[in-house]
Amino acid sequence: MVVSSSSGSHPWLTHQQVFLSLTLGIWIGWVIINGGNPLSGSFATLNAFVAVFEDAGNTRTIIFTLLIGALIALIQRSGGVAGFIEVVKSKLGRNAPEPNTKATADWYRFLPHSRASSFL
User: Cα(87)–Cα(117) distance, rounded to whole angstroms?
Assistant: First the structure.
């Protein structure tokens, strides 16, 4: 069954399976290195994954990255980003124009001590 996407892109590209893709790429690399033997390539892949965690620095880096990713996901799913945007809108007041318009660019250009004015 072929699933079509609304954007017209390839249906496989609509699902972003990053971990699966990276793992498959690593496995294929080890299979190639082991002369095309899938069994020895699988064992080499598992050994490589285990070897990464032998170094304490690698383990700390991986755990830190996972924790930061989890924190970002928590903030995003709890509505923290949307809440922050609402706070900024309330601080700016009614004078803030809608985003992505020429009025927004003009409005930011005349803000005092704004770095945005040097880029516009």
Answer: 23
End-to-end, the C-alpha distance of the chain in Å comes to: 49
Is there a contact between 19 and 25 (Cβ–Cβ < 8 Å)? no
DSSP labels, 21-85: HHHHHHHHHHHHHTTT-HHHHHHHHHHHHHHHTTSHHHHHHHHHHHHHHHHHHHHHHTTHHHHHH
Structure token digits, residue 44 = 């080499």
Residue type, 22: L
Span 96-111, pLDDT tens digits:
556 566 666 665 666 6
Each residue's pLDDT tens digit, 46-86: 999 999 989 999 999 999 999 999 998 888 888 877 777 77
Spatial separation of the C-alpha atoms in residues 31 and 19, rounded to whole Å: 18
